[in-house]
Amino acid sequence: MNQFSFSESSMLSILTTIKNNEGSLDYQRKRGMFKNGLFHVYKDSLGFDTIGYGHLVKTKGNYASGINEETADNLLRQDVNGAIQDADHWIPLQGHPEVVQRVLVEMVFQLGINKAKKFIKFAAAIQEKNYSRAGQELKNSTWYQQTPQRVEQHVIDLQKI
User: What is the 3-state secondary structure (H, E, C) of 61-97?
Assistant: First the structure.
């Protein structure tokens, strides 16, 4: 089985979208999570230690003094590459429109693969290529209630197909 990958321009678009969703540099600067040229650990919406653009901190010691933009960008790229692989193993990305591939990757990035796999009706709708129903399943989810702006865009994208 070949490893799925996006074109570089699509990957840059995904990275930009996730940066904006996770908190742009300006947003993080205003909130005090980016100061003196470094990103610092903050609590995400569920109370988990996070740094940069949504990177889950597993041991705070690694990031106690902060990280620069290049390190934050590298962590984001690594995390997105992991989300691509996890999403592709969950629901093979090939054969779906790119917008669907992106929804799956961004979902796995934000929730993690174990939580994403709990979206059984959503996954069934994607596999059946019933993208409108998949969007409705997202709209009916707790995830939608937790981050409505982000998920609403996924719903809109899926229902346009």
Answer: HHHCCCECHHHHHHHHHHHHHHHHHHHHHHCCCCCCC
3-state class percentages of the chain: helix first, strand second, coil last, to nearest 5: 65, 5, 30
- Phi (first) and psi of residue 70, to 5 degrees: -65, -40
pTM > 0.85: yes or no? yes
Comparing C-alpha atoms, which of 79, 83, 78 is closest to residue 108?
83
- pLDDT string in tens for the chain (161-residue length): 568 989 999 999 999 999 998 888 899 999 999 999 999 999 887 788 999 999 999 876 678 899 999 999 999 999 999 999 999 999 999 999 999 999 999 999 999 999 999 999 999 999 999 999 999 999 999 999 988 999 999 999 999 99
Q: Residues 139, 151: contact at Cβ < 8 Å? A: yes
